[in-house]
Protein 1
Amino acid sequence: MAKAEEKRRHILQSAEQLLASRGLADITLDEVAKQAGYSKGGVTHYFPNKNVLLLSLADMLNQDYLDRIEARRSKEQIEIGSWSRGMVDVSDHDLHSSSVVNVALVAGALASKEVSESVSDSFRLIQQKMTSDGYDPVLATIIRLAIDGLYYSELFNASPLDDELRGAVLERVRSWTFQPME
């Protein structure tokens, strides 16, 4: 990775840490610069305003999510449903560890057309990957919607499930990815 790309990624990771600890509304480019250990000018060289930073962060988080799914999928012994199982496993991990960042990302999507479009593009790609994963595309869509629902219940604190029930739901959903097409 080139030095400029490393610096850019470090700034984004610093912004992610701030989002996780303070939320979207309260962070500024000055604070991101301080968190990253750079001057504000060093940050604005890559991200001229908060919206560009947020869009870049959304893109980075979406790509990291997809990369983690692909890494998990590549370890599967059974090809059919492997991408979907990867998504279930990565989502299970995320639901335990990074819901604050996800809340900030959703808030950014609501506040910015560009961030919203980036998130929508990611959802379309996930839908396409799941419905072409070698098992019933309707079941794949139901699984995606179930995972989305788990995220949203956490994100909006809309009666989130306790760990035991969420784990049981995810295990049931994961088992559906082995269902052959009828």
Protein 2
Amino acid sequence: MKIFTDELINAVIMHMADRKGVPYSAVEVELSIDDEHGFTAEVWVNQRSQYLVESNILEAVEQYMYKQYQLRVFRSQIRLDADDEEFFAEISDS
């Protein structure tokens, strides 16, 4: 199973909104990848910025898969990747 950029962003939005106790509309996310830091997300909550590292994004995907698809997924099953067009998370069955 794969989830693509929009769902990855939604996963981070839902995760941060739940953690900060704000509505989803108060959260903005920009995903990025680089050789030094890997996958990161810059998140704005009520105009305050913070960076999430790959482990935070994986946690958000775990929770999103459970809430949206009722699937219990572990970090070891999630592989973040990107191609020329978009970001995606590939979720394996085992």
Protein 3
Amino acid sequence: MKLDVWDQITAMFYGIENQLTEELRRSSDLGLSEFRTLKHLSEQPDLELRMQELAEFLMLTQSSTTRVVERLEKRGFVFRDSCPSDKRGKYCVLNEHGKKYIEEAAPVFQDCLERVLNKTFEQKEAREAARALCVLTQA
């Protein structure tokens, strides 16, 4: 029984994530990982993170994170910088263009998220399940 519940939760999560990815690409031409990267960097005091920390936040491998950062570099939103104390360490740094872009894209993302969640949770049972999950995550 518990495995079935887990399967349903993951299916719901991936369904939401896929819908959100499609909406986000249409509205802001960003993928979900790119958006999350810019948003997370914009919340850092120095607008930067070590690549390893970024990979952990995104829950991606180092190589997948590097590809995300490369796409953002091509768009002129970020740059990579060497760590002063460890030349092998690299930082991903949000620049002014990226900061401005994410400030404009965040409300679009919020609208997309609300549309997708409202569509997903339009049934009473789905709303109740979402509330129950919120309670579990706060425990």
Protein 4
Amino acid sequence: MRKYEVMYILRSELEQEAVQTTVEKFANIITSNGGEITKSDLMGKRRLAYEINKMRDGFYVLVHFNAEPAVVLELDRVLKISDEVIRFLIVNDVA
């Protein structure tokens, strides 16, 4: 298994309950496909560096996990089609 890090930004108009549900949904994709989450950090609502689709704020989430490349492909696919996600980035965590 390889180490990965994913950061995604959720829409600011989501309720706290919807944010938790969405974070759990993405965590379940990792764990149900054989990966393991080593660290998960809901950083809260923050101002975006620049406006994205007329939005100025978003909920930032950072997750460190170990998984096979197939898990990352599935997570990438689901993040792309989720309406709650504004932006995301998955990278290899070498450190």
